[in-house]
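User: Could you check the structure of this?
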Amino acid sequence: MAESCSSCNGVGWKICGDCRGVGTAIKGGTCPSCSGGGHIRCSNCNGAGEMRDESSVCYQCKGKGWETCFRCKGEGGWDRYDGTRIYCSECDANGFETCDTCKGKRVVIEKVSTGLSQPRPAKVSVEERVAILAKEEEDRRKRERQEVERKQREQEEARRRQEEWEEWDRKQKKQQAQWRSEGKCETCGEKLGLFARMRGQTRCKEHR
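Assistant: Sure, the predicted structure tokens are below.
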């Protein structure tokens, strides 16, 4: 059963990206990309506008539906030097795995063109080209706004993290100063001995 090509919406042709469908190059003369036609043939459906399913033998497993395990090379495991057996976890000790391409079905289904080429559409009028250019400009401005908003969010997040770090650092220094004034280790708050305080030490043995 045929279905419309998703790339060209079933038209079989796409508006030329160089001349925007007018057929005239920017510097004058015939557009070299579309030969003045304003449209180029859709490469996905080859101009047919429709695609159909076609089944073929899986190229990965050659129609077997399975492949030899790449890890154990089909052995299912390995023998250790002491004679014990290590089973391969990749293939559950089977020595083979289901083909990732066809999922064991032995065939693959691909979308191919129906082969019936559609006639080339008429050239784009000046009004249509103006509308296309306006839409492109609108899309460009939208992308720029989104980029600006993204950068603003990143800056706000970086500022928030910096403020959190500065607040944590301020509290940490305040706590350390309090512990030092109380004769405690400035790292863990453990009470320092008399001789340690007399020597001017501010950390316990564990954090020196």
